[in-house]
Structures are given as C-alpha cells and as structure tokens.
Amino acid sequence: MGEPPAVEKVETEGGYVHVRFRDPDRYDEIRTPDWAKDPAESVSEASEVRTGRLEDEDDWEVTSVLIEKHVGEETAEQQAREIVEKIES
Question: Is residue 33 part of a domain?
C-alpha cells in the first residue's frame, strides 16, 4: 500500500483520545473489527480501531483510532499513526 493517511483531527472525548484519519461521514458503514484488536493493542493497550467501507466497495479503511485518554493527545496521535502503519502496510 501507499503512505498512511494524515491525521485530520485529534480530540479527547469520554475515556478516549479519538485520532481521526478519514471523515466517517463518507462511509456507508463503520465497524470496530475484531481482527484489528491485536495490531492495535500491540502498540497501545485497550485501543480500538474504527474502519469504514465506501458504498459499493469491498475494501475497508481505517477511519479513526481510539487511545485511552490517560496517555495524552500527543502520545495518542503518535500511537495511532503507528497502529495505522501496522494495519495498512
């Protein structure tokens, strides 16, 4: 694959820092897949990956990564980038 997507937005909400890579509104369906748990938690414990599928497409893309907020926004952004690189490379 090519370069990982750029971070669009980082915000803390609830117990997580949400690191958004792609606009979720452009997707027909959003999921938190079980298969993404291992690569995500290998970087940051209890993190979650959200993926989206465009209408009439088979491929899923990472839309955002949720990292526990205690790590802080700067560290969460770095960890989210690392997770996306593992998944999309």
Answer: yes
